[in-house]
Amino acid sequence: MTKLAPTLQSSNWQVTDFYDSLDRMLVSGFRADELRMYFYAATVRGWNLIKSGVDQWRAMNSKAKVVAYIGTDHGITDVASLRSMRISGVEVRMMIHHDGVFHPKVVWFPHGVRSALLVGSNNLSLDGLKSNVEFATVTELKARAGRLEKWHREVHRASELLSDDLLASYEEERNGYNAEKRKKGYVGEFTWSKKTGRTIRKNEKKRQQKSGVAEVSSIKNVRNGERMLVLEIMPKETSELGNQIQVPSGATSFFGLSKGKVTTTVALVDDATGDSRSLTMTRFTNHTTRLSIRELELSDRPCVILFKKEAGRRYAFQIVKKSTKPGIYRALLAECGQQRRIGSRRWGYVFKSKFS
Predict the structure, then answer these.
(1) Of 56, 68, 130, 285, whose CB count within 10 A is highest?
(2) What does the alpha-carbon distance between residue 84 and residue 239 come to, in Å, rounded to a whole number?
(3) Distance between CA atoms of 216 and 356, rounded to whole angstroms?
(4) Which has the closest alpha carbon to 276: 220, 238, 321, 323?
């Protein structure tokens, strides 16, 4: 571990300069069976900073391979970095079979039962490695780390080897998204269509393998066959923050606002946190009915909201974002077959039994 650039050192770990330490480990030929890199985002300028070091490391570890697990969430990773890594002989793997955001910034040097880990907040970008205020540590493991190996296996299963088709697909969709963003300003989060959601296991039902919707019924205490309301959230809502939504007239009866009734009081419960609040729903003279979901943000788009009626006038809800749970989002949106006209909000009902 003498090739590192520590700024603070203890017996087992160090606060360190991520870029300088990585560069020293690479050019010194730090011994390892494989060089594994895991990054939320990569840019060509970031890759160019470490490219020569990776080339030197590979030359001194001729039997070892270099693997990069690169995220595509939010479209920050640029196509040029992926091309350059692949041309340099790096096995590039795209992260697509997972829920949530793939967010690690890790370089791992496994060597038998021992290994060294460089972990930081740094993206593989010029700013992340050279300009930003970041935090990084380096750890030397002297015994096999079973949980770390399991994490690696899960990451590997959630990835796909970069191919010409995947690269072309990502480039086309990212370019299209950026063009639309320049034209309209805000168009929601970028989500690559190849992102399927969580890894599908072989012993799951074929229907689940196709749609990835096994977790739709995860909302707490939903009984088999119980009806839930799904609302599509439009790109722009009625309030400045985007947390006030309009409930379609056909769906207001789900909340007890039947025809001829002007107001009703409901209690909304955030299924994730248990936070609750009472709200008055009002049907206005222009026949619109609005509901405020304070957890809903503009950055959540595209998304749907799943409502489940509980005892009394309590309604548990989940915000299901395309960027974090694409399989579930697409399955729920497919159930939103009701809309007054083309372009209006889509909505529908789903049942737990359909997704069991």
Answers:
(1) 68
(2) 44
(3) 9
(4) 220
238 and 290 Cβ atoms separated by less than 8 Å: yes
pLDDT at res. 211: 45
3-state secondary structure of 307: strand
Q: What's the pLDDT tens digit per position in 102-134?
A: 999 999 999 999 999 999 999 999 999 998 889
User: Which helix H or strand E contains 25, and what residues bound it?
Assistant: helix 18-27
**What's CA 49's distance to the chain center, in Å?**
26
pTM here is 0.85
Fold designation for 6-169 = Endonuclease; Chain A (3.30.870)
pLDDT, position 220:
65
Q: Which residues contact 157 (CB under 8 A, 6 or more apart)?
A: 97, 199
| Chain segment 168-178, per-residue pLDDT in tens | 999 999 999 99
Mean pLDDT confidence for 301-318: 93
Q: Do the Cβ atoms of 346 and 223 come closer than 8 Å?
A: no
Domain boundaries, the chain: 6-169, 206-355
Burial-class residue 204 by CB neighbours within 10 Å (0-12, 13-18, 19+).
exposed
Selecting from 2.40.330.30, 3.40.50.1000, 3.40.50.300, 1.10.10.60, what CATH number does the domain 206-355 have?
2.40.330.30
Residue with tokens 């209006």: 344
* 88 Cα distance to chain centroid: 28
